[in-house]
Every structure is written in C-alpha cells, then in structure tokens.
C-alpha cells in the first residue's frame, strides 16, 4: 500500500471563525481542541447538555438504515461511575444531524489530539471500551520508517513494518532510482517494552511494501526495480529471515508493483497491483492493467479477478470471507517534482465485492461490485476488519471505522494521518505515522479478523 512521500491528504488552510446564526452542539468532554472535527448547526433544537442527555440516549440519525449497528459485545464493557463519566474523557460525540446540515472547515490534526476518539455512532463505544488510549511508542525524526505492511507474528511476539521510500546512495541502487525500503522488526516483551532492529535478509528484498501472515512467516509485496521483477515473496519470521520468490509474473508478463496482500482460508493469496512503482521512478513502463489478482501457491494458478481501478491499494476480507474490500487511492497519482499529485475528484474509495463460487469448479469470482465508503480526509490506504465485521482504514486524519453497512461509526484522530496499521492482541492496534509509531488500546474484545487474538 505504498503511498506517496507527501502527506496523505491536502491541508485545509486555517480560517478565522466567522459569526453565524448557529449554536454549537454540546460535545462530551467539553473542549474539542484545535484540529478536531466539530459540527455546528443553525437549527439545533436540543438545549440539553451532554450530562443531561447521558451516554444511553444519544441523538439518533433520522435515516432508519443508520440505526443498524455492528455485532459487538458491549456486555463485557464496564462503564465508570456517573460522577466520573464526563471527566478526563479522550473521546467526543459527533452530532450527525448537525453535521449533515453544516460543518465548519477545520485543518486536519497537526498536533497530538487530547481527545482523539470521535464517536459518530454509539456502536463505536463498545469497540473502544471505557478507557481507550492513543500513545506514541517511537518518535524517530530521521526517516519515515513506519509506513506499510504491519505484520504481527504472534509466536515470536514480533511486528514487521516496511518504511516509505528512503534515499540510497549505493552504486547498485541505480535500478531503484537510488531509493530503498527498510523492514523494521520490533520484538515485544510487554506492550511498551520492546527491541528494535532492521531486517537483514540474506537475499535482497526489492522494495517491500504490503504484507500479511502466511504459514509460519509472512508474505511481502516486492515492488521490484528497473531490473528485478515485481511479485510476492515469502520471508521467514525468524532470523536470518530467509526469503524465496512465490510469484513474479502473470503468464510471462511483468507485474506493475504489487502493493498489498491478503490470504484466504483456502490458501489462495489475493493482492493488488497498481503502478506506483513506475510513477515513483523505480519500475519500467507498465505492461498490465491495474488488477486485483488471485494466486494459488499449491497449483501455481494465477488469474485477474477484478479491474477498473484507478490505483488499487489496500485489500482485506470480511470475517466470513464472503466480502472482499479493496481501496482505490487514485486521488493520489503521478508523482511530480513537487511531490505526488492530488486530485480530489478522483477515487478515494473503498469498494466491496461479493464472492461467488462457480458451481462446476468451485472457483471463486468477485461479483456485485459496489461503493462501500469514500474517505472524507485523504485516501483510504491500508484496510483491515475486526471480528465483528467493522472495517478500518488508514486515512488522512487517522483511522476511520465503518460498520459492515458502510456507515462511519468512529474515528481515531492521529496527527499527520495513517498509511497503515496492524492489530495485535486483545484490542491492541499499532498505527503507522511515517516517523511515528503509535499504539492504540481499544476494548479487549475488538480483535482483528485475521488473527482473532
């Protein structure tokens, strides 16, 4: 899910607040803070304070279709006493009716948010739990080491992360336009105590990007170089992290620059293949459309299963594997001297597909393509599902969360946005903010659909 070197979304210019005939809805936790997304309304009829309304009686959207919520397990949540309920909170509720009427343009978060959890629907409360936290684990100003992949290996308690593009002055780096990508390995002893080092593979890994768990190691998307083919590689999770190539061509035609990958329970490997490598100067001119592919390592069968994307990027299955989500980040494209170009009229969209099996061969096909969601800030880059079927995406303002019906139910605001993220154990989530690695603690029952731990 390689995204460009510039910020994930354009910054809105700061504006002085103008005087309008509107009233500010009461938001839990009082002050919203600079950079928060706050809604206003010129026709707010409620005069009750947040304390009077209480947590159990929020303003409900008028659209009856929005009343559905994900299958969460709130019964395990213990809420604080009423006297403490509205003090020292790090989340705030968004008035959906007021937001639909009018919203002031406020710059995206540029500093750590004192209350980073935005509640768009009460179902998000059971996902984050009574005391969610957002903390910086690593702040490394040297380079954007925390960008993509995000593969957690439970057996070794290790997290693997790929960097954004880094300068490489080595003579043989000319084939990658003097750029490189580094894989960081974090071994955790406790949630906040860990060791950090670089992965040094015996074989050179050409521009690794997205990744996922596979057998006792991981699959990485190798974007290739001007000379080396792009494709999928398998890397052992244990040192010395030996690698081998799983796939490097589509019936003798070279892939563009595979970006993200997910594994189905039947053993098949699904991945996206945009042209970001060519646009960033380290891949030859594309020889294939920008497809989603399905690869079966056991047989070697590979076929295109979806097309028609501007830039196919993130990919994830719903927990029941009957729905496949693919992000299209065409709004960021064609790098220029000033950085990647941004076009707000192009796709920043999550598409959903249904899986349908052929009766005769049981081969899967993707049908019923539909728009699932459109990111309101930046692009939806990395994408994951939790065990309840909710969909998470790294966007220009942090991590956005939709329920399985496509309704935005919450956000985790993170300064500078997030390209990708990874679920750990019992509601733990790591978010990749380029030069910063963030740790998010949600409710223990909010587990990633991939590992279910």
Descriptive account of the structure:
With 453 residues, the chain is mainly β. The chain has 4 helices and 32 strands. The strands form 9 sheets. It has a 6-stranded mixed β-sheet with strand order 2-4-29-28-27-26. The longest helix has 6 residues, at 96-101. The relative contact order is 0.16.
* Number of strand segments: 32
Share of helix among residues? under 10%
Strand percent estimate: 35-45%
Largest sheet, spatial ordering of strands = 2-4-29-28-27-26
Low-confidence stretches: 1-87, 101-112
Main sheet properties:
6 strands, mixed
Question: What is the first-to-last residue Cα distance?
Answer: 24 Å
Shape: globular
Number of helices: 4
**Average pLDDT rating:** 82
Question: How are the SSEs placed, and which strands pair?
Answer:
Elements: E1 39-40, H1 50-53, E2 91-93, H2 96-101, E3 102-103, E4 117-119, H3 123-128, E5 133-139, E6 148-153, E7 158-162, E8 166-167, E9 179-180, E10 183-190, E11 193-198, E12 208-214, E13 217-222, E14 231-236, E15 243-247, E16 261-263, E17 269-272, H4 276-279, E18 292-296, E19 301-306, E20 312-317, E21 323-328, E22 332-336, E23 339-342, E24 349-357, E25 364-374, E26 383-385, E27 391-395, E28 398-402, E29 408-413, E30 420-423, E31 428-433, E32 436-441
Parallel strand pairs: 2-4
Antiparallel strand pairs: 1-3, 4-29, 5-32, 6-7, 7-10, 8-9, 10-11, 12-13, 13-14, 14-15, 16-17, 17-18, 18-19, 20-21, 21-24, 22-23, 24-25, 26-27, 27-28, 28-29, 30-31, 31-32
